[in-house]
Amino acid sequence: MTTIYEIAKRAKVSIGTVDRVLHKRGRVSKETEEKVRQIILELNYKPSVYARGLALSKTYLFGILMPEPTQDGCFWQLPEVGIRKAQNELKVYNIEIKHFFYDKYSIHSFQQACASILAHPETFDGLLIAPVLSRFAEDFIKNIPHNIPYVFFDSYLPNVDCLTFIGQKSFQSGVLSGKLMSILVGRDATIAVIRILPEDYHLEDRVGGFQSFFSQDPGIRIRVYEADLMKGQEAIHAVTRRILEENGDLGGLFVPSACTGNVAEFIHSRNGQSPIRLIGYDLTDENIRFMKEGVIDFLISQRPEIQGYRGIHALYRHVVLKEAIPREMILPIDIVTRENIDYYINEIV
Amino acid sequence: MTTIYEIAKRAKVSIGTVDRVLHKRGRVSKETEEKVRQIILELNYKPSVYARGLALSKTYLFGILMPEPTQDGCFWQLPEVGIRKAQNELKVYNIEIKHFFYDKYSIHSFQQACASILAHPETFDGLLIAPVLSRFAEDFIKNIPHNIPYVFFDSYLPNVDCLTFIGQKSFQSGVLSGKLMSILVGRDATIAVIRILPEDYHLEDRVGGFQSFFSQDPGIRIRVYEADLMKGQEAIHAVTRRILEENGDLGGLFVPSACTGNVAEFIHSRNGQSPIRLIGYDLTDENIRFMKEGVIDFLISQRPEIQGYRGIHALYRHVVLKEAIPREMILPIDIVTRENIDYYINEIV
DNA sequence: CCAGGGTGCGTTAGCGCACACGCAATATAT
DNA sequence: ATATATTGCGTGTGCGCTAACGCACCCTGG
């Protein structure tokens, strides 16, 4: 193990000088700085995290900005699980976490949460953000001081300098859903798709991917319906009713969001008819229940727990260990069905 | 943050005494020990990993015992990927790793690798073991000194005191394969299963699970064939040929191991006939290729990269951080198909 | 009676690093 | 010219913990 003493000795300077070079604190002549840098490279010096941690004895604070865990059928509890796990693991490294939840169907609530963070931005060593309300999130991002890194998870904001994005390729997950649906319904069928509003890139992409899978398949008729959640959860029931009324021969139904359970609930209550294949997203409690009951055929999981876990970890590795972080971490598109669902529930890294 | 000084002050003793209590090094009277323990509990004292690491300035060595990475169609490269990643991440905590590879089709080779470890067992702070050759692995385990912890991954050895097991539920993965096969082949079909020898609990369970899925399905005829890999890789080709010859109406083929690609290769070369649905295991290069070409329909992944990564991490958390480790970590049974395979390739935590 | 050993404690020297401080030597302002 | 910054460097202290060391005190056996 090479230490700053070793470097100082070889460069014929004191450890103070080495330290100044390492931390770019100036007060070093060009020549000595160059010499020290040279030796650091030669010896491939890496500071001891233990010694650094001890000397600094600083506690780091990461802020989390995300929807309230109870929203979207408690979907947002899932990243929470991973965040808590990371928090526990990283406690020993003096990492602390502060949550800022917002109501994703209330712009005011979102802006209030942002304001809380921006009131004392310098107290945070990093931020983990689910930028669900894309347009308003952009304003927030602009006001984050440049020296504080932030990570996106779940959804993405283009043209923004985040440390990394952790999530899934939405379009491709739609394509995969299409493939699964095609296996389930056979060559000739009518399939309904529920487009969820308010508009969200994420969900639009899923629908786009799904449609694209069938784009050259004349046997499959795809009909797109809309449900506006700004008008309340009842919108889902209403549209499902319409779909069933208007399509007596319905073979399958694709729901590009976590509210698949609401659809399942309605379909289930209307029993006795021919089975409708149902594919949706995310392992919320309700979705799990309807999958086990056989109402939902496939669920796509985005590994939300792991997104949360990795988000915190990325901040830790960047801020504390000063490691390089990849620009994005794309998680697999997990296919969940009755036979493997138990192993995906609260599955963390 | 509470320190040993704080504890010492409250207990009216010196830090040396506190240290002796913490490390159970004796030389402390019953009464003072009790008092110190009491205060430690009260303050919920957790030693600083930074200070410990610095004071100890010890490097830890973990040994890995697993098959040569090139075996089973380079399947064993996959856990290697995760192990290397963990190694890189944990380097800063003074963790080092030493590999012991063996030829899983040579008992002698296995025993030699074991002997290398047992020659100086005390140099290792922990072991990560893939106990593929179950019966011989048992002998090895018995000879590991009791103070050195070991972790199993990939497969399991019953009645043995490992720190944790990291792997998948083999039987259930077979059930899942059955489900997928049933969706693919429809209500009436003949399905062949290749039983891989030498006997391996892991693979037997997968076959068992697969058969159990169809146990009450009169429309599906399941025919089990055997291929003995001890006689070389050609056994796979030979049995595949026999299957095709004896089952003109073959609807599907289930291969419970990584050598699915070998089967695919053979089926692919015999083109022009009706499509045979193929389900197998693991993302080896060959399997990936045949999946992308459409020869393999589904692959089950056991997340081998993550198994390796987590194995090292578990040892680290137990040995260095002295954290409690769960008795087993069961990984999800991932369904991989053409549309999502790209996101599973070399996917690590 | 005392040598030898065990018991119960306090003291101390690092581990490698961060950072404040101090002290010359030079540069700039008054 | 003197007063005041600025540059370039070395020194020293402390972060919290580990483990060796040392010093009384007691017990035991010859």
Written account of the structure:
2 copies of one chain form a homodimer. By secondary structure, chain A is an alpha/beta fold. The first copy, chain A, has 3 domains: 4-47, Orthogonal Bundle (434 Repressor (Amino-terminal Domain)); 59-168 and 304-331, Rossmann fold (3-Layer(aba) Sandwich); 170-301, Rossmann fold (3-Layer(aba) Sandwich). Chain A has helices spanning 4-11, 15-22, 30-43, 49-56, 71-74, 77-90, 107-119, 134-142, 170-185, 201-213, 234-246, 260-269, 285-292, 304-319, and strands at 60-67, 95-102, 126-129, 150-153, 164-167, 189-197, 220-228, 250-254, 277-281, 298-301, 328-330, 334-336. In chain A, strand 9 (277-281), helix 13 (285-292) and strand 10 form a beta-alpha-beta unit. The interface between A and B is large, with 42 and 42 residues. The structure holds a DNA duplex (30 and 30 nucleotides).
